[in-house]
Write a structure and sequence with these properties.
By secondary structure, the chain is of the alpha/beta class. Helices cover about 35% and strands about 20% of the residues.
Length: about 400
């Protein structure tokens, strides 16, 4: 099936609701996005349901959909996908948990989730803290593995996956006690409790406090699951390629899909990421019969932080520093899919499950003539449901 070069450009969490602060516009409508608007006008603009009804609107579910996999069939949890990106192979009976380094504040028993990212802690400092946790608490039963920034991994040998965990970015500014009670698994609660003194007394955190930065004074466990069983894109569509992302979750999905996870120096998942390096790596991997999945995390992080200014900047950076240079550097005959994986409304600072805008552009695609790439214009176009069929639309002759 796959004959052309194909590239999917994902601006994570760009979708949003109309805001009074923007005169009734969404951030996508308010942002300057000439390159996305070109794709929308010259290509097919519509919406895709990336989160099947009844499933949690997580990036794991949504990005599985965008890579062409039905999450109802293949989703087992977020953390196993991140494990794949980190080169951590899960054996039978092992359960992976996402292990955030977070900042909790308040007195014992009344702590709140002050920051789900511990101030977007750097990977080097974070790796030192995860190493300290492994030295102090690691065992045959529990193993800590360092990841990127605040995103890390816990592997539990013989563990349970059927527990009620909560993403920490869903409870920013809220008391954590009700969610710990909901988790209701003593082995994990004890581990999280033992991690507190290890982290709070560590020199890395003492230095962060002295510099006025938020300490990574706790861990938060969530997104658990066993390793999934997925066919590769090569097996399904005779398609090879690569994934370019700072986020282990997306890199892990790509690896399960049979794509190469490219390493780009300076990828951070934030506004300071190496956009030019990501674009260069993506374009160098493009060729007929190859798919590149280029993912940018910054709009989602800005939304979780509740910053309208940062969200608009992240969207404009995605358009100017990613979409534009990709369009200008495409090989002949390439086809482009620009899309967001899910809404992350600033009003709630977490994900929601509305269908999201997409623009399909390239040879053989009928122009929509839409005025721009945004939620309102996309609602006038087709709705792709189930969403995993959008990949086949991209690959169609």
């Amino acid at each position: 099936m796959a004959q052309r070069p194909y590239i999917i450009l994902v601006g994570d969490g760009m979708g949003d609701h109309a805001l009074n602060d923007l005169g009734g516009k969404t951030p996508l409508e308010a942002a300057a996005t000439p390159n996305l608007d070109r794709l929308a006008s010259e290509g097919e603009l519509g919406r895709v349901r990336t989160v099947p009804k009844g499933m949690e609107p997580g990036s794991d579910v949504a990005n599985l959909t965008l890579m062409g996999y039905d999450p109802k069939r293949y989703h087992t949890g977020r953390a196993p996908l991140e494990a794949a990106a980190m080169g951590v192979k899960l054996a039978a009976g092992e359960v992976a948990f996402r292990c955030n380094l977070v900042t909790l504040s308040g007195p014992p028993g009344a702590e709140i989730m002050e920051d789900y990212s511990a101030g977007h802690i750097g990977s080097e400092e974070a790796a030192t803290l995860i190493g300290a946790l492994q030295a102090a608490l690691g065992s045959k039963e529990f193993r800590f593995h360092p990841g990127v920034s605040y995103r890390h991994l816990l592997v539990w040998q013989g563990g349970y996956s059927q527990v009620a965990s909560t993403p920490p970015h869903d409870i920013s500014g809220q008391p954590v006690a009700p969610y710990l009670k909901k988790l209701n698994l003593m082995a994990l609660l004890e581990l999280m409790g033992k991690a507190r003194p290890v982290l709070e007394g560590h020199p890395v955190n003492r230095t962060r406090v002295e510099r006025g930065q938020r300490p990574a004074n706790a861990i938060w466990l969530w997104g658990q699951g066993h390793a999934p069983q997925m066919p590769t894109l090569s097996e399904r569509f005779d398609l090879s390629g690569a994934v370019v992302s700072a986020v282990d979750l997306v890199r892990g999905i790509g690896r399960y899909a049979g794509l190469e996870a490219l390493d780009v120096p300076g990828m951070t998942g934030w506004l300071d990421t190496n956009y030019a390096g990501k674009v260069a790596a993506a374009l160098s991997a493009l060729a007929p019969g190859r798919l590149v999945y280029l993912h940018v995390e910054a709009p989602d992080e800005a939304s979780h932080g509740g910053s309208l200014e940062n969200k608009v900047k992240a969207i404009e950076d995605f358009d100017r520093l990613v979409v534009g240079p990709v369009i200008n550097g495409l090989p002949k005959g390439a086809r482009v899919l620009a899309v967001t994986d899910h809404y992350t409304p600033l009003s709630i600072k977490t994900h929601s499950d509305e269908p999201v805008p997409y623009a399909l552009w390239g040879e053989g695609v009928k122009p929509s003539g839409a005025a721009g790439f945004n939620e309102r214009e996309a609602a006038e176009g087709p709705l792709i449901e189930p969403g995993h069929q959008l990949l086949e639309r991209l690959l169609a002759p």
